[in-house]
Amino acid sequence: xxxxxxxxxxxxxxxxxxxxxxxxxxxxxxxxxxxxxxxxxxxxxxxxxxxxxxxxxxxxxxxxxxxxxxxxxxxxxxxxxxxxxxxxxxxxxxxxxxxxxxxxxxxxxxxxxxxxxxxxxxxxxxxxxxxxxxxxxxxxxxxxxxxxxxxxxxxxxxxxxxxxxxxxxxxxxxxxxxxxxxxxxxxxxxxxxxxxxxxxxxxxxxxxxxxxxxxxxxxxxxxxxxxxxxxxxxxxxxxxxxxxxxxxx
Length: 249
Prior knowledge:
Layout: H1 14-23, H2 31-41, H3 43-52, H4 58-83, H5 89-114, H6 116-119, H7 133-142, H8 153-178, H9 187-202, H10 205-208, H11 215-242
């Protein structure tokens, strides 16, 4: 095997691959980097938890904690990508993309329950207002009263943006937990999603949003989170397996 050793060439791109063949340096996606990515991406759901437990309102936490943390994660990933190896950038981008796709699938699964009455299928599909929290997310972000007769377009918009922010960051957190999706079953993503659902039920989430926790509610939301996890895990694993450049040693 021929190895290039010209010191005048920048150590990016192919040179980075050659160096890894020569010396097999440890990947940047080591436990400390994974922990950092997990904490930075966890700032999204952390905003809501800080509001629940009276630590900081979402109106303050979003611009001063969440956005700087996500900007730092993005900047770190971009810097890593520009260096040529992208051992951090690749899983962060993959996790965010897979998380967004999974969030869309999660919402599509819940649509029949949300629109059961208008569609006339409530005789066999329980009607559940599962999207009621989104404008309330927006109201929290905007510093508005949680309960309102009607919510502004801005509250709806920012509430949905925050919802998909959680989807993307949950994807990043999942990859930070498992490391390399090529070496893990996608069932781990389902387990991760179920943990998120159970964690939600144990927080003040139901009480804050006036959600009656019934057996039907738990069954539907658990199933929805299982769909989220299945899509997240399968997308992440398939993309990683199909990418020749996805190297996480």
